[in-house]
Amino acid sequence: MALTPWSSTWAYSDGGRSAAGFKGTAPGDCVCRAIALAAEIAYQDVYEMINSFAKLERPRTVKRSSARTGVHRETCRRIMEYLGWEWTPTMGIGKGCKVHLRADELPRGRLVVSVTKHLVAVVDGVILDIADPSRCGTRCVYGYWRAP
Fold first, then answer.
1. Is-contact 9 1, C-beta < 8 A?
2. Which range (24-28, 105-109, 144-148) has the least confidence?
3. Euclidean distance between CA atoms 102 and 135, whole angstroms
4. Which of 24, 115, 121, 122 has the maximal Cβ count within 10 Å?
């Protein structure tokens, strides 16, 4: 399938959530789903890893991270570094948007991409998620995690 210049291919994937026996939807599980898909780790294993890292958080906020309801940025960073992945920032303060969620603006390979209030797996230009988050190729990418 040829990609149009403004888009990436999107494919539905729950990251293995339903196969792991979870019922219903979990709107805040994007971190768990993205890591499971990009790192090729079982959803259940990532779910447990996130929740164990959440227990190490300082109780600065009322709500701790959770694989089901959302993960704080710092906890996500610790998890990705634990897995050995490297962060590549694509946007700086006052610099404007330079990279969009599009195949022609992201490198090939397995990525966990950070966009506004969401993480998404992108594998060789194909967005894997429960809905297409690309906004027709206009969604700005803050940066991405990549296996070394």
1. yes
2. 24-28
3. 10
4. 122
